[in-house]
Every structure is written in C-alpha cells, then in structure tokens.
Amino acid sequence: MIIGVHGHAGSWFSSTEVGSVELNLALMDRYSLDRHVVSASEAVAYDMVSGNSRPAEVLETQPRLLGYVVVNPHDLAATAREPEKYRLADRYVKVHTTYPSRPLTSPAIRDARAPAAEAGLPALVHTGDETALGLVDVPERHPDLRAIAGHLGGPAWRTAVEAARRSDRFCLEPCCSITDRGRFRHALDRDPLEQMLFGTGSTPVDPAVAMGVVPESDLTDDEYDHVMGRNAARLLGLEGEEDPTA
Q1: Residue 124 pLDDT > 90, yes or no?
Q2: How many CB atoms lie within 10 A of CB 244?
Q3: 77: buried, middle or exposed (CB in 10 Å: 19+, 13-18, 0-12)?
C-alpha cells in the first residue's frame, strides 16, 4: 500500500475549495494512495475540540482515511482529554506548532506530546525551523512516543535530518509546497531507511508536489517499498491489513 501520513480534511482558510471528502478521495485515486492520515483543518487553525469532532463520521464510512487528533499547547487540560475521547477510533495524535506560535523546544509543546505518549500513539509534529533538533528529547521524556517531523523540517531540513540521525524514534516525511532539489535524497543517504515516510500535505497542497519528490530522489525498489508504505504500516499498526481499495 501507498500510505500518506500527512493530510488534511475540511476547508482551509487560504483556500475555500479544498475541504470536501470527495476531493480527498479523488486525489487519492489520481495518485494511487491507498491510505491517507488526515487532521481536521479547523482543529489545526481555529478550534481543537470542535475541529477534531468533524471528521469522526467520515472516518467511520471511509476505510481509506485515518485521522489525527489535533492537540493544542495553549490548552493542556483539553489536550489531555482529546486522545482519550477518540481512543477506540482509527486516530492518532498531531501536534501543530505554527498556529499556536510555540517553538518545539517550549515546555508547552513538550507537555502537549504527553497524551500521545501515554496512549502509545505516534505524533505528527509541524517542523519549519532549527528547533526541530529539540525533538531528539522524545526518547528521554517519552520513551514510548514516535514523532514524525512534518515537512522534513521545512527550510531547516538539514537540521531535521541530523535530529533523525540522533534518535531512532524520530521519523521524517517530505511534504511541502516548494522543495529544494535533493533534500529527500540527502535524508535517505544519512538516516535509517526505517525512519523515512511519505506525506502529501493534501488537500491544501496537491499531492503532485510530494509525488514528484519520489522520482527526483531516484529511490531503489527497496527504498520505495519502505518509504511509500511499509514503514508507515508498521508505525500505524496497519501491517497485515488488506488493501482497502481491493
């Protein structure tokens, strides 16, 4: 299976025509994605609690879609309740740091990761600057937590690569709107293959951008197999599941 570990559901403030589940599924069909893990745009950019509740019914009827529970470092009391609320659903935990305006090294961001660690869930963390190196404290503070660096560190991608080299609980995914040539190949050549994932940023960003990173990186067959699906299936507990498109 091809599994995208970084997606969105619902309207986005910068674009009003990217929110429908029909578009999400159509883009998955166009680019042969079998599974897509999405977070609610409303939860990321506006209201964590109401936003997290919106994809619930969709996820129950669309087996190709999995979901993230978005947490907010500004409201740690509610953050502690959100993962438990969706404990029995096919959901995971996402920490988003851009809109809360907190660096990854802040105590609030560290505390916001705790519910994911306690639930034994991986956390997708928005990364976009040099503070990505702060994620190497994950094993020390939360031994059971796996962190995914969304956007592969953004402009600070060399720093994210260094962080992944220091910790085997730190994974990278390459979704972006604008990419530097050779950055994913740079990561593949320096970090363990098992820590490399695939993400699209869809639907606000067309998956074509991330899909173009793959041939540009000249992956071997084994690298392609791990990056595009095997590693995510292991991380998300999907190993052995049947292809939902079959």
Answers
A1: yes
A2: 13
A3: exposed
